[in-house]
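question for whoever is on the cluster today: can someone run the full assembly for these? two chains, 1233 residues total. i dont have access anymore since they changed the login thing
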Amino acid sequence: MTMQTLSLAPWLVATPMIGAAVLLLGGRRTDRWGHWLGVLASAATFVVGLVMLLDMLGTPAEERVAVHTVGTWIDSGPLHVDLGFQVDPLSLTFVMLVTFVGTLIHVYSVAYMDHDVDRRRFFGYLNLFVAAMLLLVLADSYLLLFVGWEGVGLASFLLIGFWDGRRENAVAGKKAFVMNRVGDMGLIVAMMLLLATFGSVSFADVLPAAGEGATAAGQATMTAIGLMLLLAACGKSAQLPLQAWLGDAMAGPTPVSALIHAATMVTAGVYLLVRSGPLLEAAPDAQLVVAIVGALTLLFGAVVGTAKDDIKKALAASTMSQIGYMMLAAGLGPVGYAFAIFHLLTHGFFKAGLFLGAGSVMHAMDDDVNMRRFGGLARLLPVTAITMGLGWLAILGVPPFSGFFSKDKIIEAAFVGEGWRPWVFGVTALLGAGITAYYMSRLFFMTFMGRRRWSDGGPGDDGAPVRHPHESPRLMTWPMIVLAVGSVGLGGVLAVGDRFVTWLEPVTGHAEHHEPVLPVWLLITLTLVLVALGILLAFRQFAMAAVPVTPPRANVLVRAARVDLHQDDVNEALVMRPGQYLTRALVYTDRAAVDGGWLGLAGGIGRLGARLRRLQNGYVRSYAATMLGGLGIVALVVWALAS
Amino acid sequence: MNDFVAPPIDWAAVSPVLIVLAAGVLGVLLEAFVPARGRRATQLALTLVALAGSLVAVGLLWDRVQEHAVSVVGGSYLLTPFGLAVQAVVGVCALLGVLVVAERTTTGQDAFAPAAAAVPGTAYEDETRRAGLQQTEIYPLILFATGGMLLFPATDDLIVMFVALEVLSLPLYVLCATARRRRLLSQEAAFKYFVLGAFASALFVFGIALVYGFAGTVRLQGVVAVLADPSVSPLGSMPALVLVGLLLVLSGLLFKIGAAPFHAWTPDVYQGAPTPITGFMAACTKAAAIGALVRVLFTLANGLDPATRHDVEVALWAVAILTMLVGTVAGAVQTDVKRMLAYSSIAHAGFLVVGLVGMDEVGSQAVLFYLLAYGLATIGAFAVVTLVRERTLTGDEALGDGPVPDDGVVLGEATRLAQWAGLGRKAPWLTAAFSLFLLSMAGIPLTAGFVAKFGVFSAAVEAGAWPLALLGVLASAVAVFFYVRVIVLMVLTPPTDGGDATPAEAATSVPADAAGGTGTGSGGAPSGSGAATLTGAATRTLVSRTVVTVVGSRGPAAFAIAVCAVGVLLLGVLPAGALDLAGQAAQFRP
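^ ran it for u. tokens below:
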């Protein structure tokens, strides 16, 4: 990379940041043109990224990893952190994804948020998000990454709660915040451990030294680091056991769900793990846990997806499941890294497209999200139906759409290995593909096919809500069309001759090709058969037969899936209740034991005490007693340890 | 003949302390000679100039002290780079604190009683209030307290340190008792502070006595010399004396910091004291006391044998763990803003002690930065609290559903947390600033608090105290909840009233004659906007409700809040400069 292009890196973060600053600080003055400024900032960032990409394509592979250091950020004794930007194929892939999809979603939002009085603020937050996300992927150290990490969390929190008048949004925002804090703690602890083990938190120091660190610091430390990084990734990427916030986060405006909770931010966990690849390889146990978490989540999300009637929540469950695939791939080691990122990229396109389509449907149906009240919309919303249809085929992994190339590679990679692992992971991934086909087809058929289950105002539709569906304006359909083109072609273009895998090699390293335990042609056939079965089943249930407008009584499994497999109950029972009991117990102890004890003592002394209590405050001596008692305890501890 | 030989005194080195104390004395004289009308302006100007002058003196001394510590009168006054840096932090915080103290808001009243000596609830009190008296003595008192704080970390002599402790404490006791509203609470707080402070002082003096018994001197360097060569002192062979003495001295200092188990006074005093004073003392006292703690601890730790040093470390560990736990856990259940901030201050004391366990340069650098970050956020947060008030509406105003008019009687601060619901809509900038301070206290990145926390924790890890650092990270993760709870309350929760944008709280209806006459009673009278259903002119005039309002600043407090907010952000985004200075200050320790 030439120095000139490399020095553009700070502008990738600065451009949207300036946009956000102008929009958020400019106040009402910027209301009229603010949204276009937001679009411009995002588009300009894309152009900057494109220039860097073209330049990188012109450099030989071994010179593609570079760091642009701006200056010293923190220099405090043992901790020296530079403010630098990591520019390599991995980060540039993210830059292109975030800015390209981001810009399309900006454009879409111009029309989607048209009637919102706070549209400018919305665009300010979107720009803030883009800036933070780019900082996250361009950071050259864990600490700087953490700043971006918190930044995207903040933007997400602000955007989920954007319509802050609604209680559910506030609750959802809070849930997302709390779950993310748990994850953040993991990242902080991981950084502490890195600092203690390697004396640095920058990628350039830590990653190459990972192997030596394992021998020097011991396997346990490396496993701890790996698990803490995984915890962080779970929080951000909505993986088990920190998955519960994603569904609720759908309360935010739909473009937000598309950009943040499908295409970019939720994949940050995958980025973190792939970036930390060498650390995980030095800790095989942690790596195995990553794969297990991914496999479990991919099934969990898929099962939940089959029972959701809320179109956005069904898509959210699917996001969770697809990220599960990526985590699984990331947990498979170098053989999986490139495929994880590849799937992340194609997923970014088709999932964003699906969400924008869902937004378009909601737009047409007066913001209704209940799919049981949709049906027969294909004729009325042709563009939406076609673009969503292409996204649907892509996520199913039907050849030659994008998803086929990326997901199939993950399934294939999951079958590589020895012992029980290939069989467990492989079969899980295979099964997931079948379930995905079922619930995504269910979503598509319930929305666009079958009889309409809403009323057009005419007679004969008793009790059905009256809707007047209409196709969305051009500003909304164009981004959908562009994303649909990506969903169709991107996978194939990048898969030819392993182009994408080779592109990432400077970062992920070259992985030897291993043969899966089953022949590849059999795997592809099996996958496609399962997918076909899924589609067929969904077609019979939701396109041929009439869909009941109220959810029918179902068996215990379906009911469990409807309530997210009881995730909230589990959280409540395991985390929230004990927490509440603890605080309650503390309050009680304070009242009963501390206050009561001292008051009781005073009462026990008798009338004199009671009279004295009226004259002077009884608590001071309890304070003094605390001090003396505390001093005594400290002295005792010292004495006990000294002797 | 015995000619008196004046000891050579390096006046320049003493100037930061001297300027402030001299201005305090001058302030007392001004009280006597300046006419009442001009007193406040004169006092305020004098205070600000003195504090600014002291800061300038600190700045001028900086380079000189970097080369070698300046000792005056054989160590009675010892200016080390660290002591000077603490003086700088105290000076900055005091300057900002005084601005908040000077705030009179658009209501024209400051936070202090017109005549603090008037017995609450008496006719005399009413008279003083009507006459519009002002207690301008608070400014000299603040100057004296600041003088003591500046001296506290800059001495090698335990007796001088004790005098400094009293010089900073006594004015604070008085200041705590001077709140304009809730005067009984305020006086109770001052009394508690005084009694417990006296207790802590007693421990401190007893500790000095034991150290003196061991070493035959109260100079810290002298004690170190005796530790190195026990034969110098008759009781030099009894190192247990110095250990117990050191622990007692530390107790006295930890009391001032508000570390557990010497923290019990903090919530009550912080709640009862006039809020601007709370902010001032929370920031400055803690800085000064940490300065003194570092002075004692680091000096003696060098001389102690490894076993004794280990004992002291154990004590610090215990204190740090206890303090973080108490501050965080108790803070989580508070329902009063000032008490919550008080417990947060206790938790911060714990984090500060975590940074000190290593007793090394890295730790003192981290602690210095932490003090500045904490001081800015604390003063800013308490300044915001002074502006959020209750207001009573009576008569027709209380009945209307429409927007609340701007008149009505403004009362004290609305400190119950529930009253802060929906503040974000009423005062977005104030809410943003308060949120920023809370986020900084929580240690969220891009605020000063994050860099500060990271600093103390990595200092602890560096010193091998990683369990403490881990506990600290856990404690701050819990603490995040109670800070964010407040932000969520302010920004996302709608006002409890619901009807209009005004957070109305606990509307009280007093249907006086209805209670006696018709028998509907107050139990039957709906509260809040429901009060509008009451009819009858007689009832109407007696209905009142309390709403939460934000009073405008006349400048100083708003300026202080803005400076604190910018400071917190700047230290968070670009901490390099401040860290460099702190690093310089931490490099040399005699």
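summary bc i know u wont read the tokens: Chain A has 27 helices and two strands. The first strand of chain A starts at residue 66 and ends at 76.
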